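Structure first, sequence second, as always.
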């Protein structure tokens, strides 16, 4: 073993010694590097030399053995690289064979979480109308004919608006898939919503006779007191049923007759001035649910009531084909002369009555918390209409009081 002395630029170690070891194997003289001092001590250098010497005694050439070790490391790297490529190809194949249900789950996790309901409504619609037909089909295999079959199946039930909504969600989901190269084309692209047909927007408004009948029938309908209060409160405030049942007590000020809806469909907070009629419903509720955070808590007291609960209860009391299993037997308890009605029709009825009582259309729109369609009006019209809105709710509440307790010899008249 011998060393070659070198000067270095390192101020701490200005001198280094590179050690080589010379040996004979099979009649040939070989030489290999062991290490350098002071990185390795002389003791460690001798120990390394002794290990190499023991290999030579066994007939092993340490130079060739190191070369083989280095080659093995390179081979291992190449194999690891190929393994990674195979794994990526396998992932790509799995993604290419991703099912529609699997795509929806990924889409909901990454995109639908930004919706107000976190995609719950889309989930329900897909479970009902999409997954039974193509849920287990590979996304790459879905064609226009499959989507058309979904549309046709839904249209057979005459649900135009829901069909358009599902088609719109399918289009968004396949757009999401195209962005990630799961599919090469959008199978919904050539199916136009305009060809499905008009939405058939409901125009059901309860007339005065029906309102009197409804106010009489509610206490006898078998509905829970809280459900009755939900319908009457929604009607008096012309709110949406979902916003009504999601209300929290912290946003209700009975003394000041104010109710704040911090989160609404249009994303804007909405303040309601409460009529005496509405206040009475809240006082009834406070005795029942006032100890909870919500006006209408669910059965486990862990959150608000499902907004569809009251709607289903109303529908169950207007059935013409017999009661459903496990549901109420009072199938005609809330039937009215004008035909089937829904909670949302009470909102439309209240808005119509406000206009008939003299409220200006812009005031009614404000009470409904509708977004002004005209951009110019949204920018330049700053009036809040607080006084007229308060008066509109007050007049509508007084009319409900009159209809609820109307003597037979009193005739109500409309505002001029």
């Amino acid at each position: 073993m011998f060393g070659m002395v070198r000067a270095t630029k390192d101020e701490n170690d200005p001198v280094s010694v590179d050690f080589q070891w010379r040996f004979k194997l099979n009649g040939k003289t070989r030489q290999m590097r062991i290490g350098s001092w002071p990185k390795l001590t002389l003791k460690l250098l001798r120990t390394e030399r002794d290990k190499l010497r023991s290999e030579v005694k066994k007939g092993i050439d340490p130079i060739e053995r190191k070369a083989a070790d280095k080659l093995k490391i390179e081979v291992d790297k190449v194999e690891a690289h190929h393994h990674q490529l195979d794994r990526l190809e396998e992932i790509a194949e799995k993604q290419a064979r991703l099912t529609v249900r699997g795509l929806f789950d990924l889409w909901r996790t990454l995109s639908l979480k930004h919706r107000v309901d976190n995609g719950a409504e889309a989930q329900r619609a897909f479970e009902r109308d999409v997954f039974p037909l193509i849920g287990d089909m590979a996304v790459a295999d879905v064609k226009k004919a499959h989507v058309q079959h979904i549309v046709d199946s839904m249209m057979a039930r005459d649900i135009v608006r829901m069909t358009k909504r599902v088609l719109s969600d399918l289009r968004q989901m396949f757009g999401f898939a195209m962005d990630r190269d799961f599919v090469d084309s959008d199978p919904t692209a050539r199916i136009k919503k305009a060809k499905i047909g008009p939405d058939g927007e409901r125009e059901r408004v309860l007339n005065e006779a029906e309102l009197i009948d409804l106010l009489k029938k509610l206490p006898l309908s078998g509905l829970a007191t809280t459900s009755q209060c939900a319908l009457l409160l929604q009607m008096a405030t012309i709110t949406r049923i979902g916003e009504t049942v999601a209300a929290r007590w912290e946003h209700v000020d009975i003394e000041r007759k104010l109710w704040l809806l911090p989160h609404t469909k249009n994303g804007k907070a909405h303040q309601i001035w409460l009529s005496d009629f509405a206040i009475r419903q809240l006082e009834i509720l406070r005795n029942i649910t006032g100890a909870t955070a919500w006006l209408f808590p669910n059965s486990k007291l862990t959150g608000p009531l499902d907004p569809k609960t009251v709607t289903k209860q109303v529908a169950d009391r207007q059935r013409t084909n017999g009661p459903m299993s496990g549901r109420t037997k009072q199938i005609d308890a809330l039937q009215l002369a004008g035909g089937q009605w829904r909670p949302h029709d009470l909102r439309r009825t209240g808005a119509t009555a406000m206009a008939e009582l003299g409220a200006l259309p812009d005031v009614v729109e404000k009470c409904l918390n509708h977004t002004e369609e005209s951009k110019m009006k949204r920018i330049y019209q700053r009036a809040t209409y607080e006084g007229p809105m308060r008066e509109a709710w007050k007049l509508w509440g007084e009319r409900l009081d009159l209809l609820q307790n109307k003597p037979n010899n009193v005739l109500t008249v409309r505002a001029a």
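Margin note: The chain has four domains: 2-60, 67-93, 100-195, 208-404.
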